[in-house]
Amino acid sequence: MAFITDNDLLDGGRLLPLVEDFYTIQGEGFHAGKPAYFIRLGGCDVGCRWCDAKYTWNPKLYPPTDVQTVIGRATACPAQAIVITGGEPLLYPLGVLTETLHERGLQIFLETSGTHPFSGRFDWVCLSPKRQQPPLDEAYARAHELKVIVESAADFEWAEQNAARVGDGCILYLQPEWSVAERMMPAIVEYAKAHPKWNISIQTHKYMHIP
After folding, report:
1. Which of 153, 173, 177, 199 is most open to solvent, judged by the fewest CB atoms within 10 Å of its CB?
2. Higher-confidence residue: 47 or 160?
3. C-alpha span between 151 and 114 (Å, rounded)
């Protein structure tokens, strides 16, 4: 799948393939429960079979949008935090977007698989590694939060492999894959109790019926 990564086409990040932007409550991980403005970009080359945002994968469906338009909407709402997500947002140059939002006094949170080099400036990085395309070394060093999706018992070993590579201050989360959450939750609970460095993340926005 081809991605819109040409800096000339994106004008150095002044244009980005926007899927949607909206004000909601962060549902997962360390910032769960926090009001935040989400900016979702199109395009992903990781392709998780259980992804709940497969509609974002093809960037050709989302023509480049002027980031100033998005920034205007974000700053017009009460949110003090911005979540940049996807798709995989690190496919694109994020310097213009993040620097401008920082100038407006907003905190910037990134959700990434860590599979591409970083651009932009972030106050918080949530790294969610995937087996089929593991993160770059840089991503482990930048992560404030490691969120490993657990679909089966084999994922606990994968979680430990990733935990061994992040910094000492990185907060560790196990999150059940939504379609098997009821089945896997007892095992996740017992694993966290036996290995208390791990916390449990739940997709609370799905219980609240919000995006």
Report:
1. 153
2. 160
3. 20
